[in-house]
Write a structure and sequence with these properties.
D-Amino Acid Oxidase, Chain A, domain 2, six-stranded mixed beta sheet, about 30% helix, globular, about 375 residues, about 25% strand, 9 helices, alpha+beta, eight-stranded mixed beta sheet, 2 domains, FAD/NAD(P)-binding domain
């Protein structure tokens, strides 16, 4: 088999990139060792936000929200702009979020600081007794990772992209620093362009090409819960509290409350859920919304944050190997960034440049010791 471009990794980033390349008429194949979305994508918390604390991530996420809206309307998968509500408990937090809001507003993101009373109007179940303000952006939102990823995949295939599930990359054949082929469990694929979009597994693919630079991406286990259903639209936005162990929670289409906290284990590929997480998540989420104490937890599961030292991904071309690219290390932000990263990577591959600030995610920054400001992160 032959393919001009091979993407390793069938999560939202790899699938979005295949979709964008296929739209441009490129011959592209995705390799996924299990089924699409089975890595981190189908385990994510559904959130999509523009409320970051630096210019690059704000710009990328503003574009991503535009693409989420466009494709959800075209393809019919659920994407709701129900907002993100960051609860603030100290003057120090308020000062930091004023700075964040200023950056966001500069790029047309309509975030504003609101009072505890206004926050309670948005989520009436909130305990606002300790809150002194909140950061609110109504154009942030959430999407169904199952429907969205499947929709992108189906439309990519309609445009002639090939998606090979249960096909694992075993080795990458390189001659004189040029990629020639990929060995898989199902045979050899001749190709000249490879994109590593495996996120938590990216270091394993980097090892296959004997990557000449250090790109530190490690898998960390994070857990989430979902509760029994409550009255629909009781908790529409994603609600965030850094005070209560980086908590996040929102309500799904089915009525259950999905949420998590900053309970991190790793580096590890072990996804066995820990009881300690359940004890802490019930404590902290019920401090934000006391009514949650009365709910049954239906399920808990675990997934990966593929973390870099500054919580920003590595996105770009590796100059020493022709043509090897990486888009990995999203540190919990891969799902929300997926459509914009797909567009950005497709620009780099087909045009050699992009209008989005890809230099912020320079894979060489770790080697130089030039880390970025840590990306705003919760969960």
């Amino acid at each position: 088999m032959k393919s001009d471009i091979v993407i390793i990794g069938g999560g939202i980033v790899g699938i979005s990139l295949a979709h964008e390349l296929a739209k441009r008429g490129e011959d592209v194949t995705v390799l996924e060792k299990r089924f699409i979305g089975s890595g981190s994508t189908f385990r994510c918390g559904t959130g999509i936000r523009q409320q970051f604390n630096d210019e690059a991530n704000v710009q990328v996420m503003k574009r991503s929200v535009e693409l989420w809206k466009k494709y959800s309307e075209e393809y019919g998968f659920p994407f709701e702009q129900t907002g993100y509500l960051f609860l603030l408990y100290s003057e120090e937090e308020v000062k930091q979020f004023r700075e964040n809001i200023s950056i966001q507003n500069r790029f047309g993101v309509p975030t504003r600081l609101i009072t505890p009373e206004e926050a309670k109007e948005i989520v009436p179940l909130l305990d606002t007794s300790e809150i002194i303000a909140a950061s609110w952006n109504p154009t942030d939102g959430k999407a169904d990772p199952f429907h969205a990823t499947t929709a992108f995949a189906l439309h990519a295939q309609e445009m002639s992209a090939k998606i090979l599930e249960y096909t694992e990359a075993k080795d990458i054949i390189i001659v004189d620093n040029e990629i020639k082929a990929i060995k898989t469990n199902n045979g050899i694929i001749k190709t000249g362009i490879v994109i590593n979009a495996t996120n938590a597994w990216s270091k394993l693919i980097n090892a296959m090409v004997k990557l000449p630079i250090r790109i530190p991406i490690e898998p960390y286990r994070h857990q989430a819960i979902i509760t029994q259903p409550i009255k629909k639209n009781a908790i529409n936005p994603m609600v965030i509290s850094f005070k209560y162990k980086d908590s996040y929670l929102t309500q799904t289409d089915h009525g259950g409350v999905i949420g998590g906290i900053g309970y991190e284990v790793g580096p590890t590929y072990d996804l066995t859920p820990a009881y300690g997480f359940l004890r802490e998540v019930t404590t902290y989420l019920s401090k934000i919304i006391p009514a949650l104490r009365e709910l049954l937890i239906l399920r808990t599961w675990a997934g990966y944050y593929a973390k870099t030292p500054d919580s920003n991904p590595a996105i770009g071309k590796i100059e020493e190997i022709s043509d090897y690219y990486i888009a990995a290390g999203f540190s919990g932000h891969g799902f929300m960034m997926g459509p914009a990263v797909g567009e950005m990577m497709a620009d780099l591959i087909t045009k050699g440049k992009t209008s989005l600030p890809v230099e912020w995610y320079d894979p060489y920054r770790f080697e130089r010791g030039d880390l970025r400001q840590k990306a705003l992160q919760m969960g």
